[in-house]
Amino acid sequence: MSPYETMSFHLETERLVLRPWAESDAADFSALLSERGKGTPTLERARTSIGELLAATARTGIALLPVQRRDEGDFIGYCGLIIGRTTLEEPEIAYELCRRVHGRGYATEAAGTVLDAAVATGRKRLWSTVGTWNTPSLRVLEKLGFERDRVSMEENGEVAWLTRSLP
């Protein structure tokens, strides 16, 4: 039995809704992942990834959630907690948004509500790992009170490890 509460899987902000994954998200998820410039995952691969995310949520009690704009109802990315390079006790906050919505404060808004959800689980600290080249993402984390812990060299270049203590 985990000493932590299960994370809320439905979060809302003034402009956004974060909710559990559905199979109908596969095309949008595939399109988002294709923006990384490494090809477009097939719909079957996107569906498999969604199934893996749902299974991880059931196993861990934390979730990476699709992000939709409240008024438009469109999928704009994902945000949530993952084990990633860390642990279930001190998970990573992760987010990725479609390029068409960059620069509008959505990442900060989504990550802020996920931060609140992490506090509600009883966790004491979160991590984030970001490529040092990703200045906009580093700015989001700075706004949320994350501080640089260290930098590591990985296959794709330098990665900044940031941490934030939770109240």
Question: Could you walk me through the main structural features you see in this protein, from its secondary elements to its overall organization?
Answer:
The structure is a single chain. Helix 1 (26-34) packs across helix 2 (43-60). It contains 4 helices and 8 strands, in the order ββααβββαβαββ. It is of the alpha+beta class and 167 residues long. It has a 5-stranded antiparallel sheet with strand order 1-2-3-4-5, sandwiched between helices. The chain is globular, with a radius of gyration of 15 Å.
Helix content: 25-40%
| Beta strand count | 8
Uncertain stretches:
none
Mean pLDDT across the residues is 96
Judged by helices, strands and strand pairing, the structural class is alpha+beta
How big is the Rg?
15 Å
**What strand order characterises the main sheet?**
1-2-3-4-5
Describe the main β-sheet briefly.
Answer: 5 strands, antiparallel
Quickly count the helices. Answer: 4
Distance between the termini: 23 Å
